[in-house]
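Hi W.,

Here's what went into the run:
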Amino acid sequence: MAIDVTPERVRATADLARLDLRDDEVAPLAAQLQKILDHVASLGALDLTGVAPAVPAAACPLRDDVPAPWPHRDDALAQAPRVEDGAFVVPQFVAG
Amino acid sequence: MSAVTDPTALDATEAARRFRAGKLRAVDATRACLDRVGRYDGAVHAFLHVDADGALAAAAALDARRDAGDALDDAPLAGVVIALKDNLSTRGAPTTCASEMLARYVAPYDADCVTRLRAAGAVVIGKTNLDEFAMGSSTENSAFGPTRNPWDLARTPGGSSGGSAAAVAAGFCHAALGTDTGGSVRQPAALTGTVGLKPTWGRVSRYGLVAFASSLDVVSPFGRSVADAAMLYDVIAGPDPRDATCVDRPVERADLSRGAEVLRGLRVGVPREYFAEGVDPEVAASVRAAVDRMADAGAEVVELSMPHTAHAVAAYYVLAPAEASSNLARFDGVRYGLRVEGRDLRAMYGATRDAGFGPEVKRRILLGTFALSAGYAEAFYGRAQRARTLIARDFARAFERVDVLATPTSPTAAFELGARTGDPLAMYLADVCTLPPSLAGVPALSLPSGRTRGALPIGLQLVAPPFAEARLLAVAHGVEQLTGRLPLPTLP
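Here's what came out:
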């Protein structure tokens, strides 16, 4: 599990997380993540043969999916940065 | 009301009793707390938002009901002034999570625990500081500045619920709610000399709690006494159809009438791994002394081993960030919170999230995203989930032999502000005693066991099997009779 946390790996991971890091953030984050992941690598010493993962998804109960009115629609919309005609507005994301 | 008693010096249990007896008006209790906040919170910075008008109006309504002859039997918390960690949604008031991302966010609804507390007559005076999105152990990761420990203003109150802990310790309110994901209520309780109870995962609804790590987050009360924690727990625990993981089983009330007698014949496990290297000798000695007093009161002390304890930090700091990276994906500048405009949708997401999140939140999002990414998910997330199973088994095996476990809550007493901010791993390692019960989902409580030579509080952690909160609280109440409660600290 030894991982080399390079600035390129930090940038690639940040891209997956939709996080645009500033240039001056990358090197310190790489050093800190390296130290943390080196500690996490200690899990490699555990014998996990036949050990099931905790909290398997099947054990999580689901309630019935029943539609219900939202009581405070205007309050919820009031929190949005941009709203038009009761809808959230975002920048264009397909070529028009 | 007795003129000589300062209502802020009461614990929640006594405040409720006096209200019920007609000896304390809710408005007087609320005003006294607000005055104390006004006088001292400039130095402590426990609060991010104080709602004086709302609190006084709620208090006046309670007094009016009682004046009209209403016995308020449905309001066990009438007379009690509380504070809420600012990651618990409160309708019409800010819920910032101590983040620039939500600096101007006003929740459109109350969290289930908040609805329950209001219905029970609690007066909410404000929202307390935290590490941003509850990620941290010192409240220094708040975007709005750190909270200081009322026992020593140069030191941290712990975290992430440091604002709630400091507010209770400073006498700003009688009790408070925090949230505990890996120790975020127990550790600040230990560092501020208060009592913090993390219930079993699934016992308290998470509806309205801004999610950090959903398989670990638990809404948890602070009090000045075990009875206070029990009183809040009784109100907030119970099923809620809006949280499918909140279990539908009866809430057993703790019987606190037996005092230390409850310890007679009790089997108390002392796991040796919790006294390993890194635990301050003064902390270890104080906790051992508390266990000795339990033995003197008739408890049977069993030394035992929980061999996977040392892996909890590694497992937790994969699993919690993995869940956080997913939960915090919702902060995208579209529906609520900060937006930083960009040339297109992707640029807006990236710029918004860079500007809105602080360094620790970014670290954890990156850690979690990496641990879940293609090619690494099994080696990191998968292994951590299996390690979590082994840690949970340690508890199941221990509880075949003993009724409760006794450990330190934090390896050290309160540390100085800034002492660990440059070294995230050092901060994480300080969670070593509180993480295993979180990963196992079992209830755990911190109460004061004594103080250091420098007069800083030390916390004893007691841990019980799943859904055995009534036992945990009764035992803690018994221990409290032996160790005593701490006074309010003297504020400058």
